[in-house]
Amino acid sequence: MDIKQIQELIKFVAKSGVNEVSIEEQDFKITIKTNQAPTYVNASIPAPLPAAPVQSQVVAAAPIIPSIVSSDKDEIASNYITIKSPMIGTFYRAASPDKPSLADIGDEISAGQPVCIIEAMKLFNEIESEISGRIVKVLVENSSPVEYDQPLFLVDPS
Length: 158
Fold this sequence. Notes:
Blueprint: H1 3-16, E1 20-24, E2 29-33, E3 38-44, E4 54-55, H2 71-78, E5 81-84, E6 89-92, E7 108-109, E8 114-120, E9 123-128, E10 133-138, E11 144-146, E12 151-156
Antiparallel strand pairs: 1-2, 2-3, 3-4, 5-12, 6-8, 6-11, 7-10, 8-9, 10-12
C-alpha cells in the first residue's frame, strides 16, 4: 500500500462513520480508529512510509483564493487547475531554508514533479503535481499550516 492508497482509505473511513478498520497484508498491518476524539493511524511497515494524521472532527479552513471582481477574471481563473493539499500539516516551499523553492510563480511543472513539502507528524512529505503546466499563483505562505484539500497552487495547464 502506498501513501496515496492510505490517504484514500483514511478519507473513506472519516466519511463513512466507521469506528475502526484494520487491514493486514503479508508485509504490513494498518489500523484506523475513530471516536469523537482525534483519530490515529498505526501502521507497521517494513520500509518507512509517511502516514497522514487524521481527525474525526475536521474544521475546514477557508480556502485562500484571490478576490476576483470582474467577469473577465472569472473566466481566466476558471481556466486554472488547483493543486490541493493531500493532508493536514505545515506547508514548505523548499526542502530546507537554504535550498531554492521547489516551484515558483512562472515555473513550468510536469506531472510527478515535487512542488512543495508538507510536514505531518515530523515526517516531510514531498507533494507531487498531478498535472503539467505553468504555476500562476502560490496560495499559501511558507511555513503555514494547511488543511486537507486546501488549495496550494493555481496552475495554467495550457
